[in-house]
Amino acid sequence: MGYTAKQYDVIVVGAGHAGCEAALAAARMGCDTLLLTINLDMVAFMPCNPSIGGPAKGHVVREIDALGGEMGRNIDKTFIQMRMLNTGKGPAVHALRAQADKFMYQHEMKKTIESTPNLTLRQGMVDELIMEDGRCVGVVSQTGARYHAKAVVVTTGTYLRGKIIMGELMYESGPNNQQPSIKLAACLKENGLELIRFKTGTPPRVNGETIDFSKTEIQPGDENPKFFSYETKESNVEQIPCWLTYTSESTHKIINDNLHRAPMFSGAIEGTGPRYCPSIEDKIVRFADKPKHQIFLEPEGRNTLEYYVQGFSTSMPEDVQLDMIRSVPGLENAQMMRNGYAIEYDAVVPTQLWPTLETKKIEGLFTAGQINGTSGYEEAAGQGIIAGINAARKVQGKEPVIIGRADGYIGVMIDDLVTKGTNDPYRLLTSRAEYRLLLRHDNADLRLTPLGYEIGLITEERYQAFLRKKELVELEIQRLQETKIKPSDVKALLDEAGSAELTQGGSVILLLRRPEVTYEMLEKHFPSPYELTEEMKEQVEIQIKYAGYIEKQLQQVERLNKMERKRIPEDIDYQDIKGLANEARQKLELIRPLSIGQASRIGGVTPADISVLLIYLEHYNRVTAAKGS
Amino acid sequence: MIEHDTIAAIATAVGEGGIAIIRVSGPQAIQAVDRIFQTKQSLCDAASHTIHYGHIVNPDTNEREEEVLVSLMRGPRSFTAEDVVEINAHGGVIAVARVMDILLQQEDVRIAEPGEFTKRAFLNGRIDLMQAEAVIDLIRSKSDRAFAVARKQAEGVLSNKIKALRQNVIELLAHIEVNIDYPEHDVEEMTSQYIREQCEKTIVEIDHLLKTASEGKILREGILTAIVGRPNVGKSSLMNTLTQENRAIVTDIPGTTRDVIEQYVTLNGIPLRLLDTAGIRETSDVVERIGVERSRDAITEADLILFVLNNNEPLQEEDRELLKSLQGRSVIVIVNKMDLPTKLELDEVIPFLNGGSIVKMSMLQQEGLDQLEAAISDMFFEGKLEANDLTYVSNVRHISLLKRAKQSMHDAIEATYAGIPIDVIQIDARLAWEALGEILGDEAGDSLIDQIFSQFCLGK
Lengths: 629, 460
Prior knowledge:
The structure holds 2 protein chains of 2 kinds. Chain A is an alpha+beta fold. In chain A, strands 1, 2, 6, 7, 8, 9 and 20 form a 7-stranded mixed beta sheet that branches. Chain A has a 6-stranded antiparallel beta sheet with strand order 14-15-16-17-13-18, with no helix packed on it. In chain A, helix 1 (17-28) links the parallel strand 1 (3-13) and strand 2 (33-37). In chain A, helix 2 (57-67) packs parallel to helix 10 (377-395), helix 2 packs parallel to helix 12 (444-454) and helix 12 runs antiparallel to helix 13 (460-482). Chain B folds into 3 domains: 6-127, Probable tRNA modification gtpase trme, domain 1 (Gyrase A, domain 2, 2-Layer Sandwich), CATH 3.30.1360; 131-212 and 394-441, Four Helix Bundle (Hemerythrin (Met), subunit A) (Up-down Bundle); 221-381, Rossmann fold, CATH 3.40.50.300. Chain B has 15 helices and 13 strands. The two termini of chain B are 41 Å apart. Chain A: NAD-binding protein involved in the addition of a carboxymethylaminomethyl (cmnm) group at the wobble position (U34) of certain tRNAs, forming tRNA-cmnm(5)s(2)U34.
């Protein structure tokens, strides 16, 4: 059986959030790209929360958009609620979060993919990689089609040897009862990749008709919604609220009485679950003192009455789930439409990857998304775009693109994964970033759009608009800097702001440095000659207000970058380096860091080891230089 | 490990000679020293390879602290090929520690890592290739030794205190982080009030550690050790044995207690400041009495008392009186003159000891010194000596890190008053946590994330 199908530049296996970004990026960069998915109806499917964004995750969506990816535009077209979170905190952690119409989200993404030049969307399950001299040069489908390509991106999500677990019930399955991918796992193993078993889960869904919303609190969207994409200027959709309720004493009792039937505790689950997204039974056992837990009821779309019961992830047997649901105020008579379940799947140990997301063992093979040990749509999409970009650049013979830790959450995530690995499904948190103040929601374009333009994912028109914005922001900051004032000039303004009087004159900027003075107040007294959008004003305000802290972080980044610029040659032989501690030697051999900076972040590599490495490199470079001359 | 910042370290081995040199290297070396150096001409304007006389001043108080000679070598014509300043202090170990302390309060100077000057010299091309391996060995051996010491300390009292401090800070951090990363979760909202309370609590504890460090006594000045006993039991001999037999004489400290001679020695790496009451009392009865009084004074001041008895004599009334006054103190009884026939009833001594040890010696035959060293080490490392944990705080590096942590906590408090948002305040709190971590040699790593998930119940 089998036949030779078409030859492509790049093949992407899986059309979830990672696969869609990877395929779109590669195709838009000019590569003839094939996107294969087990079920064409599951493109960009949200098997869990019908929601995108939040702290760190929302930042990633902005970064994807700044690079020219799709997730931001797609959610802007399909959201049913938009909220800016953390508005009471600093600008760095303002975080946009959308509730999606999950069906519309899929349809929009599918349409975009279908209409993208160079991109072929095809239903098909991949069973095998085609290998040639240790390189991956294509894939074989279940139906025997042999597709050849110069680079392959595998994004299997939770499909790889997926297994659904619910109480005593257990069966092979992808998410939401989709067909799992079984054979590919064996193929990856045969080719030397180490796999681990992870687990995640999802809560039940209930029919909104049967919810008593009067017993819950309403959670409306923002009156003036912001958007994820820098391209989206407006949207007039009607927003749909979410609802908040809590578990009851009776919920906790039902769970405690049935713990012996919970796969979490009976030993039926072997995979490691995410710490940040525990099941409700896990929460109740681990935090026994907490009398109640929040439950958000989130609509799954505009044209359905199905509600997602957030906070209620469970793998209890169906009968227990029913009792549990009905113990929650507002859900006493709820009709459960789908069960919650746990799902186990295979993932690749991510330290086997280069920071480009290409595997070290198999040249030409890239992996992205949940297969790399992460969790979350945004994390998947963030890796997807990078894998797609690097697959395309490899095909085109160009230098790979690596985003630094100081340039984006995407960079933080990938560096964490490939340098430290992960013991449980990895979720991005703002606290994982050292330079949070630089990695803001508002400045993703300033950080990444020049790169997006350079690699060909940002259109000329958008780039020119970006440059104009940047210029106007700089001009306005300069203008404020040069506007000098006497204390008497601004007494009224400061009174209005409830701010202390100035003791001496100076630049207007001094006023804006005060937390209680906003750009809006300043603008009234010192109107700008430039036509500034809200976005630009926000940028001016943030850059001035937090200048001191930003400067401090920039200095730290400069030090980091010095270490990042010290490249370690790929052919370095760690056995040859005298003076490395054994643990460090083993770790360095495994990770094969590209720079001294990356090496220093490997657990078990001490500053003394780094010094030894630096000296060896200097030695190496001098010897190499001497040979060369 | 960060390169091209400015580093400083004491370049002369501690314990060898009265002059100590502090070497400073890096782009800010000249400016940083200039800031704390009072002399005719600013160092910044001085020519390379010149020596300057002046005083180190404390920039906070503007007081002159030490008289020093400063040599200036501009890069690349220096050992490291960077700008290098060397401060020659003549006042011995305490003076050097004080200068180092002031220097490290400069924000742009940090303490050098083991072998770092040599490493820089190599990386900047000042040392040839043949020596590369030697440099690696140097770094390795110094780091390993530092590690061994750190591990020993990690079991100590100080490290527990630092860990407790860090735990305060990390709980605060986790609380801030959870507010940021889980804004809709029903965890307690972080308030300025709460941040201030936590920071203030931490500052109080850091202050406590710093205060005990500066009050006293140990390492900077050594464990104050009194040799006491009746005349002619061998106190002078013991003093001489300890100081002469030991190559680790650091310096003579001009007597703060006038007639009492002070000597600074290290035994097994433990610094002792010996107060000797010997040598002034054997001429007449009056002086003898003074001697005994001085011994008593010394007893009230000292951290450790070496009480010397004569094996060749029965216990005297004076001995008993002294022994009584030693109640509750850290005492080692030295029974000297073991080379002579035993007339001393040790059973009479034991009730007074409350757990202290007895070491039998013969100064004349130089026997028993090893046992004495062991006895002191035991007391020291097992925590029987009061304030022993403070030793580690007296380490200049630790002091500077504690001060840095304290400053960051202050910054955080100030930021709350200035209305700065919590995610920005977090930067200060995190700096404090990292500074404390550096004392323990811990890596910051993932433990914050661990803390978040163990402290709070989160998730969808």
